[in-house]
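Support request, please re-run this one:
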Amino acid sequence: MSAEISQLTGQCGAEVTGLDLSRLSDAGFRDLHDALNRHGVVVLRNQSIDPQAHIDLAERFGDIVVNRFFTPVTDWPMIAEVRTKPDQQRVIGGTWHTDHSYDKAPAKISILVARDLPPHGGDTLFASMTAAARALSPGLRATLEGLDAWHSDQTFSQSTLVDKAEDSAFRGGNPHPVLIRHPETGAQALYVNGDFTLRFDGWTEAESQPLLDYLYRFATQPVFTCRVRWTPGSVVIWDNRLVQHYATADYAGHSRLMHRITVEGEPLGR
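Re-run finished. Output below.
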C-alpha cells in the first residue's frame, strides 16, 4: 500500500495515511521521509506501535540520542517519558522550542507516540522555520546570514518539570548558524528558539535579546503554523531543523503520557 499525503496548512505539516509503522516497507519509509522533508512534520493515525517498533522506526532515520534530562521508559532506556500529572499547571515543552539545539550536533528527528491522552486538549503546535526564513526581509536576511547564535542546556537546571540532572549532564553552549541549510534538501531555515538560544556570537546577551525576541515572535506567527490534535494511536514525527514545536497546557486535572525518541543529527552549516 502506498502512502497518501494530505497537507495540513499552507506552510507546515501533513497527515500521512496508508502506512503501518509496525511493518514499514522500504518504499513506505521513503515516502514517509520525503513527506517529512517537504512538510517538516507528519502525523500518522491509528497506529499500533510498541516500544520495540518505536525504536526500530527511529533507527531507520539514524542513531538514537538518549535524552539526559528526561526519565527513561522502564526497560526501554532509549525512549524518553514525557509525562504530565493531573496537578500540573504547566507542561514539558510548553514554550516554542527546538529539541536538543544545545548539542554540538543537534537532533535531527523526533518521534512522539501517544500512550495516555487526556479527554480534551494537549494539542501540539508546529511552526515552519523554512517559511519563516523565506518571509524575512532582504535586509534582515543579509544581517542574519553572517551570524551564529549560542544555544545552551542550562534552562533545564532551572526547570521544575524535568528530573534534576547530575552536573555532568550540562555541557554548556554550542554555536550554530542563525540561518542554516537543511543537510538533505538544502532548504534555508531560521534556527533560533526561545528555550535554548542565549545570544549571537560576538554580541552580549543584552545586545542580542531585542533581535532574538523579534525573531521568536516572527517565526511563530500563525501563518507559519499547524496544530496537531492527538487521538489514540497517533504518532507524530518532525524534523527539528525544519520546525519548532509547542505543547499546549490546557488539560489541568488530567494526566497525559507520551513516549519520545530523538535521532542524532549532524553539525549544521549555512
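The longest strand covers residues 76-84. The chain has a mean pLDDT of 94.
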